[in-house]
Amino acid sequence: MIYGIGTDICDVRRIRASVERHGERFAAKVLADAELAAWRQRSSRWPERGLRYLATRFSAKEAFSKAIGLGMRMPMTWRHCEVANLPTGQPVIVLHGALKQWFEARGLRAHLSVTDESDYAASFCVVEKI
């Protein structure tokens, strides 16, 4: 049974402006530790690729927060929601801390799709009750 659906589109230019204004602090606020390491690696080799990576993660977390019905309220936090990839490349939500406990207590499972183009990143998330 579907618990919730969320979608988000993010303007990569807005993410670029935030990084230019706040530097790495912005990325550190939005990304979990593993994501932050990946962002640094991608940004060092190709800055534009790093920005799109950050934008897709921002968008995916927004879509997930909408699908669970919390928005950006506790226990939903940027850093407790991580977007990882399976060996196949499929994006998955990995939760930590109180958000993980909240999600598991409700018997939920998330399905995620992300995409990006030069100026936009978009995400779609379906959360189901298992």
TrEMBL record:
<keyword id="KW-0460">Magnesium</keyword>
<comment type="similarity">
    <text>Belongs to the P-Pant transferase superfamily. AcpS family.</text>
</comment>
<keyword id="KW-0479">Metal-binding</keyword>
<dbReference type="InterPro" id="IPR037143">
    <property type="entry name" value="4-PPantetheinyl_Trfase_dom_sf"/>
</dbReference>
<keyword id="KW-0963">Cytoplasm</keyword>
<dbReference type="Pfam" id="PF01648">
    <property type="entry name" value="ACPS"/>
</dbReference>
<dbReference type="InterPro" id="IPR002582">
    <property type="entry name" value="ACPS"/>
</dbReference>
<dbReference type="InterPro" id="IPR008278">
    <property type="entry name" value="4-PPantetheinyl_Trfase_dom"/>
</dbReference>
<keyword id="KW-0276">Fatty acid metabolism</keyword>
<feature type="domain" description="4'-phosphopantetheinyl transferase">
    <location>
        <begin position="4"/>
        <end position="125"/>
    </location>
</feature>
<keyword id="KW-0443">Lipid metabolism</keyword>
<keyword id="KW-0808">Transferase</keyword>
<feature type="binding site">
    <location>
        <position position="8"/>
    </location>
    <ligand>
        <name>Mg(2+)</name>
    </ligand>
</feature>
<feature type="binding site">
    <location>
        <position position="62"/>
    </location>
    <ligand>
        <name>Mg(2+)</name>
    </ligand>
</feature>
<dbReference type="InterPro" id="IPR004568">
    <property type="entry name" value="Ppantetheine-prot_Trfase_dom"/>
</dbReference>
<keyword id="KW-0275">Fatty acid biosynthesis</keyword>
<protein>
    <recommendedName>
        <fullName>Holo-[acyl-carrier-protein] synthase</fullName>
        <ecNumber>2.7.8.7</ecNumber>
    </recommendedName>
</protein>
<keyword id="KW-0444">Lipid biosynthesis</keyword>
<dbReference type="GO" id="GO:0008897">
    <property type="term" value="F:holo-[acyl-carrier-protein] synthase activity"/>
</dbReference>
<comment type="function">
    <text>Transfers the 4'-phosphopantetheine moiety from coenzyme A to a Ser of acyl-carrier-protein.</text>
</comment>
